[in-house]
């Protein structure tokens, strides 16, 4: 699943194309949008902002209309030259000048009205965005402590209601860098330890959001059975499913306590 840095990177690429401009054309090739009349409803409206919160991306138009996207496991955003041949599973195309913005195979794509209850409620459910200009650490800790204290810290970090933007890769890397066992119950993780995970993860995600090069930050993720990057031959990286979604967690049983 694309994580928060991937979504912020997409927003950073889309923004120069659309923000402040009226799209030349809006196309919804997927048949599910046929009766929704997005091109007619958005015609002549300028894009006021393109922003992200956690794993959610928002394209905000004049008049309070907002395109909301969540890519889940399969979706992608692409910014290409206008003559790019879009794939058959493209759901949305926004054209301006010599560029196009396409959303491909994204299972959550909807046109909403900002300021309405459903929209506000959806945003309010999300925890603080780890990539916000200023991270609300107090809100993160409050939400973490309001959660089940027997829940493992690795699983809690994936809960977008506690902190938005961290996915399975960054959960593993953050816990490894902070030397915290992802299997420890949150009730046994101090505030300082919880913040240490977030604080080592945030600058790496910020860099990835700027340049889109997430792969270079993989230190422990995917190293099942290999020597620990920190302990060397003294320990092997373990991996097993964690949480209700059984997402694979990678950790060193020797140096993560």
From TrEMBL:
Query: What are the TM regions of this chain, as residue ranges?
Result: none
Q: Which residues form the Formamidopyrimidine-DNA glycosylase catalytic domain?
A: 2-141
Tell me which UniProt keywords the record has, alphabetically: DNA damage, DNA repair, DNA-binding, Glycosidase, Hydrolase, Lyase, Metal-binding, Multifunctional enzyme, Zinc, Zinc-finger
The record's listing under InterPro entries reads: FPG_cat, FPG_N, H2TH_FPG, Ribosomal_uS13-like_H2TH, Znf_DNA_glyclase/AP_lyase
SMART domains, alphabetized: Fapy_DNA_glyco, H2TH
Top-level class of the enzyme under EC nomenclature:
lyase
Can you give the residue ranges of the FPG-type domain?
219-257
Which Gene Ontology molecular function entries are recorded, alphabetically? class I DNA-(apurinic or apyrimidinic site) endonuclease activity; damaged DNA binding; oxidized pyrimidine nucleobase lesion DNA N-glycosylase activity; zinc ion binding
Q: Which Enzyme Commission number(s) are listed?
A: 4.2.99.18
From the UniProt record, give one GO term of the biological process aspect: base-excision repair
Q: Which residues form a coiled coil?
A: none
One Pfam family here: H2TH
Task: List the Gene3D superfamilies.
Answer: 1.10.8.50, MutM-like, N-terminal
What the record says about family reads:
Belongs to the FPG family.
UniProt protein name: DNA-(apurinic or apyrimidinic site) lyase
